[in-house]
Design goal:
Elements (H helix, E strand, L loop, with lengths): L1 H28 L15 E2 L6 H14 L6 E5 L4 E8 L4 E10 H6 L2 H13 L7 H19 L3 H37 L1 H30 L3 E3 L2 H10 L1 H12 L15 H17 L18 H13 L5 E3 L1 H26 L7 H9 L4 H4 L10 H29 L3 E5 L5 E5 L4 E2 L1 H8 L3 H13 L6 H4 L13 E8 L5 E6 L2 E5 L3 H12 L4 H10 L3 H5 L4 E5 L3 E8 L4 E8 L4 E7 L3 E4 L1 H9 L3 E3 L1
Parallel strand pairs: 2-4, 5-6, 14-18
Antiparallel strand pairs: 1-2, 3-4, 7-8, 8-9, 10-11, 10-17, 11-12, 12-13, 14-15, 15-16
Helix pairs in contact: 1-5, 1-6, 2-4, 4-6, 4-7, 5-6, 6-7, 7-9, 7-10, 7-12, 12-15, 13-17, 15-16, 16-17, 19-20
């Protein structure tokens, strides 16, 4: 049966080439359609072997295990995806550049072993270990799908797509078997338990990424803003306890997504069940399924630097102004409240409800005259009593949402409240004392109780716009987040002995040399080594948060830097003057002989914006 199916597949492929030839002839004979030829960038940030030797070594090892050649390129991309694609011709018979795409959200949300499982599966699509025909069918299915999607001429589109549907239908069992082989390879590389957990985790990561883009990033694009620390924000969202609970539920019962006609994957539940059965067999044999590999981002050298470079490339040419996420949600929350408030007040004017104000609406509720507000909401007419109750509830929710937003808009406009960032939210409204308030819920309760409405009205009237003495004199701010990753380094910097300037994801750090550092740099000078390179290597050996806490380190967060002025002279001497919010400052000096690591000044420019100037 397997031999027959293989022969049938080869015949279908041969038929596909005949149909493809017909398509080419049809395109030549058919009336010309204007088209543009593009040689587009495949997207993402190229990670060269010189920059990422560790990553390339692991990928080459995975490719060798899969029995296929390693990719020609590895690209970092801003999406929940990992893939290995190939530029092919002749419907997959001739192969070209092979590219591997690594999604940053995967690196942030998976362990290193889980990433190995994903990459092994993707490389397994191109493996010829089990059968050469499987890899050929995989490439051909992708190529045929791409051709079918790109056809627009009706003379050639219909026959080719008809043949494509037949081809995909008859080759699906072979494609399914090829996917199962790829899953087995991922289990062999990372362990069946890890492979199964990975399949459960991917839908949760995808859901979290969609939440981040739709609720947070898109909130800023409406107002010409895009978040700085784009990828770091995603880790904050995934660390929020409420989000973790939500993502845990998705992982426990991953949703089955409707598959495309061109999809070759078996149902997700079936794949997970097969891997978990393999895991049970491994555990019975005494295999340890614990995953102690650490975060997948550790596969990169200086991941923060790479994420920052990809962020800049992703938004290049967008015209969006970079701003902290906290600033974006403040703007977006206030604007959303203003729009809803205007909707309510306009509706009150159209229905001749005076005064058309928040207090006017509260007065109506307090006097029990709810119908005038509720009648502004149009609900499909029903006759059943139960349906009428549902209609009342729907109207109550709509008015509560609009009235709550109108109250919030008034409070924000009078500086009695403000919107602030919430990774469970996307934003929350807090009063002048920092306590969260929920006008929508208060309005909903008031619509059900005139007595409660009177209390709500009194609360709105009495809320003072000025902070009390305790709030005014409260000076203690929340401590700045410690640095988590290095982006760049420069040494030696002149001062009291050699110094090292470190650029981290959360600020700048200036490190004085310890006694052992001085010995190491002295030894480097004697042996014709580089003192600057030695200082950098010794600093980067320690985690940034640990180093920032030492007595030899001075650390200042980005938001505490008032200005940084970089001077470059023709004599080979350079300097940077840094002024902090407290009025203190650093004056740094170095020469062209100083060693550098990473993209220091582009990173500084990214985080400081207008506060960074250059002579």
């Amino acid at each position: 049966m397997r031999t027959f199916r293989a022969a049938l597949t080869v015949s279908l492929l041969a038929g596909a080439y005949v149909v493809a030839a017909f398509v080419l002839v049809g395109q030549q004979l058919a009336p010309r359609q204007p088209r543009t030829r593009t040689t587009g960038d495949p997207g993402g940030l190229v990670l060269t072997e010189q920059e990422q030797p560790g990553l390339w070594a692991e990928v080459r090892q995975l490719a060798a295990t899969a029995g296929t050649r390693a990719p020609d390129e590895i690209r970092l991309v801003p999406e929940v995806n990992a893939a290995v694609s190939e530029e092919t011709s002749l419907l997959g018979l001739r192969t070209g550049t092979r590219r591997m795409f690594l999604g940053v959200p995967l690196l942030q949300g998976l362990s290193r072993n889980q990433l190995h499982a994903v990459l092994a599966h993707e490389l397994g699509h191109h493996s010829t270990t089990h059968t050469r025909l499987g890899a050929l069918v995989h490439r051909s299915r992708l190529a045929i799908a791409e051709v079918a999607a790109g056809l627009s001429n009706p003379l050639v589109k219909r026959p080719f797509r008809t043949y494509a549907r037949i081809f995909f239908s008859l080759t699906r069992p072979l494609a399914y078997a090829h996917e199962i082989d790829a899953d087995r390879l991922s289990a062999r590389v990372a362990g069946a338990r890890t492979a199964a957990v990975t399949l459960r985790t991917l839908p949760a990561l995808d859901a979290a990424w969609r939440i981040y883009l739709e609720q947070y990033v898109e909130a800023g694009t409406h107002y010409g803003l895009r978040p700085t620390r784009f990828f770091d924000n995603f880790t904050h969202l995934m660390s929020e306890p409420e989000r973790l609970e939500e993502l845990g539920r998705i992982s426990a019962a991953p949703p089955e997504v409707a598959a495309s006609a061109y999809d070759s994957h078996p149902p997700l539940a079936e794949r997970i069940a097969r891997l978990e059965a393999m895991a049970s067999a491994e555990e019975a044999d005494g295999a340890d399924g614990a995953d102690k590999s650490g975060n997948a981002a550790s596969i990169l050298r200086y991941p923060s630097q790479n994420f920052l470079a990809l962020e800049d490339k992703t938004f290049a040419g967008s015209g969006l102004t970079p701003a902290p996420m906290a600033e974006i949600v403040t703007v977006a929350g206030a604007r959303a409240a203003a729009v809803n408030a205007e909707t309510l007040l306009n509706a009150m004017r159209e229905n001749q409800i005076a005064p058309a104000t928040v207090r006017g609406a509260l007065d109506l509720i307090a006097t029990g005259d709810l119908d005038r507000l509720l009648d502004m909401v149009e609900i499909e007419s029903t006759t059943a009593e139960a349906a009428g109750e549902r209609a009342f509830e729907e109207k109550r929710k709509v008015i509560a949402r609009l009235l709550g937003a109108a109250i919030a808009h008034e409070l924000v406009g009078e500086d009695k409240a403000r919107y602030e960032l919430s990774w469970a939210g996307p934003w929350r409204l807090v009063d002048i004392a920092g306590q969260e308030v929920d006008p929508e819920n208060l309005a909903y309760e008031a619509l059900g109780s005139p007595g409660y409405a009177a209390a709500l009205r009194a609360w709105v009237h009495q809320l003072d716009a000025k902070a009390d003495t305790e709030t005014q004199t409260k000076a203690a701010a929340e401590p700045s987040a410690p640095p988590d990753g290095y982006i760049g380094a420069l040494a030696p910097i002149s001062g009291d002995g050699f110094r090292t300037l470190l650029v981290t994801d959360t600020g700048l750090m200036l490190v004085k040399p310890s006694g052992s550092d001085r010995l190491a740099t002295g030894f480097a000078s004697v042996t014709a080594g580089s003192p600057g390179r030695t200082l950098i290597q010794r600093a980067l050996e320690r985690p940034p948060a640990e180093l920032a806490a030492t007595a030899n380190a001075a650390y200042v967060p980005w938001d505490q830097i008032r200005a940084l002025h970089l001077k470059q002279s023709s004599s080979g001497r350079r300097s940077a003057d840094i002024t902090t919010a407290s009025g203190a400052g650093w004056s740094l000096r170095w020469t062209d002989a100083a060693e550098s690591e990473g993209h220091i000044w582009p990173a500084v420019d990214h985080y400081l914006g207008r506060r960074f100037t250059v002579d």
